[in-house]
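Module 6 notes. Inverse folding takes a fixed backbone as the condition and produces residue identities as the prediction. Think of it as a translation problem where the source language is geometry and the target language is the twenty amino acids. Below is one complete input and output pair. Work through it position by position during the lab.
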């Protein structure tokens, strides 16, 4: 039965200038180039995911949202018709 590797490989073609920049930054932190690049990419990935998945609201928007949750408005006539139609469709099946 084949075993699953504990690591995966990532390759990238970069210019010599970027390579030198990354290598210098890694040396300044006392890390290998691989460790530096993987760590930087991981931090960027976490930051990107957090920024994408987090909804940020102004204070006024937070208050409006809370009011809507605590006292939702009455459904519009079109929504009431849609609910009635849904009930009608589900009752006939």
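Target side of the pair, the amino acids:
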């Amino acid at each position: 039965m084949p075993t699953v590797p504990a690591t995966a490989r990532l390759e990238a073609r970069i210019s010599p200038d970027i390579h030198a920049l990354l290598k210098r930054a890694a040396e300044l932190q006392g890390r290998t180039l691989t460790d530096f690049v993987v760590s930087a990419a991981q931090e960027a990935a976490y930051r990107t995911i957090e920024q994408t998945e987090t909804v940020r609201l102004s204070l006024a928007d937070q208050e409006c949202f809370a009011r809507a949750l605590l006292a939702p408005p009455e459904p519009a006539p079109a929504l009431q018709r849609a609910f009635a139609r849904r009930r009608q469709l589900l009752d006939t099946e």
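Reference fact for the lab report: Residues 16-92 form one domain.
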